[in-house]
Amino acid sequence: MALPPNCERYPRTEVASNKPEFFRAAAAKNLPNGGFIIYDDTFLSILGPAPELDVIAENDAYPFAHEAGVYIPAHDEVWITSNQFKVAGKKKIQIAKLKRVGGGGSKTFTVEEVDPGIEMANGGVNYREGVLFCEQGTFTNPGGLVYMEATPPYRTQTIISNYHGRWFNSVNDVVVHSDGSIWFTDPTYGYEQDIRPRPQLPSQVYRYDPRTGDVRAVADGIRKPNGLCFSPDEKTLYITDTDAVHGEGVYEPDRPASIYAFDVIYLHGAPFLANKRLFAMTDCGIPDGIKCDTAGNVYSGCGDGVHVWTPGGSLIGKIYVPGGCTVRRNRKFPIE
C-alpha cells in the first residue's frame, strides 16, 4: 500500500530479528522534520490521505510547552503549562494561552502568558466553562486542583487541596468522569525536584466527588502515577507510570515507563479499579500525558513523539517529533 506524504513505514518484522541499534534511525530517516511512522496500516485510517505536522508556536527563552494542552472550543484556544525554569534563581512554571489568528483552518497562533496565581501548574482538563489545573504547590502552598475561568480576569477557585487534612504530594494530571467525579494522580515529583516538602502520602491515584466532598484513594502500587484517561465507554481507566524519569530529570531505562489498564467496576454502588494489567511499555522515553479517541485507540506523549496503540495494546504508529514532544527549541506540536 502506498503511503501518504510525511509518512514512513516501520519494518517491525525486520526489526524484531535485527540488532537493537538498527531501528530508531531507520524508522525516521526520511522524516527529518517530523511526520508519521506506520507500524500497522490501521494507523493510516486514523491519519487520512494527507496528514500534516505543523509547528504553531515556539519559544527559545524557556520550555513553554510542557503540559495541559487544554482546548477550549468556544474560544478556539489552547491552554498550556511550561516545564520548570528559573527566574532570579527561583523555580517557576508559566501558564500560557495559544489563540488562533484568523479563524477557520489558520495555523497562525498568538501566545499570551497568563498569571492566575496557580503555583507550579501542571496537567489540566476541560471543566465547566474553563480549565481545571493541577497545582503542584510549593513549600508553603499545599496545591491541589484549581479551577480557572477561561476569560479575564481568569478568576480561580480551589476545588480540593488535601486528603483528609494531609497535603497532596504534587498533583500531576486530571480527568473528569461523566458522573462529575474528578480523578487525578499524585506522584512525589515535587519533593524530588525540590519544590515541595517531604511527602505525607504515598504516590497514589484519587477520586473526588465535588457534589459530596468524598475523596478516595483508588489506586496505589504505581511508582510514579502520571497521566490518566478513561476509555470512551468509561469501563477502563489507563494510568501511566513514568518512574523511569525521576529526581531532577534522571532517566533510568530499567525503571517503569509503562501504561497500566484497570477495569472500572461498581461494588456497593461505588466505583473501584480492578484487574490491573500492563497495557503497554514505551520503547522511547516515558508515557506522560494520555488520551483515547472515540474508537478507543490510546495516545501518549513519549520520548520521540506521540505513540498510538489499539485498545488491545498493539503499537500501530507514532506521530514522530524530532527531539521529543517538547523539543530542543521548545515547540508545541498539536494534531489537526
Characterization of the model:
This protein is mostly beta strands. The chain has two domains: 1-53 and 225-336, no CATH class; 59-220, TolB, C-terminal domain (Neuraminidase), CATH 2.120.10. 6% of the residues lie in helices and 43% in strands. The strands form nine sheets. The chain has a six-stranded mixed sheet. A four-stranded antiparallel sheet has the order 4-5-8-9, with no helix packed on it. A four-stranded antiparallel sheet has the order 10-11-12-13, with no helix packed on it. The longest helix is centred in the N-terminal third of the chain and has 6 residues, at 23-28. It is globular and about 60 Å long. The model is unreliable at 19-23 and 326-336 (pLDDT under 50). This is SMP-30/Gluconolactonase/LRE-like region domain-containing protein. Residues 140-323 form the SMP-30/Gluconolactonase/LRE-like region domain. InterPro entries: 6-blade_b-propeller_TolB-like, Oryzine_lactonohydrolase, SGL. It comes from Rasamsonia emersonii (strain ATCC 16479 / CBS 393.64 / IMI 116815).
Task: Lay out the secondary structure.
Blueprint: E1 7-9, H1 12-16, H2 23-28, E2 35-38, H3 42-47, E3 57-58, E4 67-72, E5 77-81, E6 85-87, E7 90-92, E8 95-100, E9 109-114, E10 121-127, E11 130-135, E12 144-148, E13 156-160, E14 162-163, E15 166-167, E16 174-176, E17 182-186, H4 189-192, E18 204-209, E19 214-219, E20 225-230, E21 236-241, E22 245-246, E23 250-251, E24 258-267, E25 270-281, E26 290-292, E27 298-302, E28 305-309, E29 315-320, E30 331-332
Parallel strand pairs: 1-2
Antiparallel strand pairs: 2-29, 3-30, 4-5, 5-8, 6-7, 8-9, 10-11, 11-12, 12-13, 14-15, 16-17, 17-18, 18-19, 20-21, 21-24, 22-23, 24-25, 26-27, 27-28, 28-29
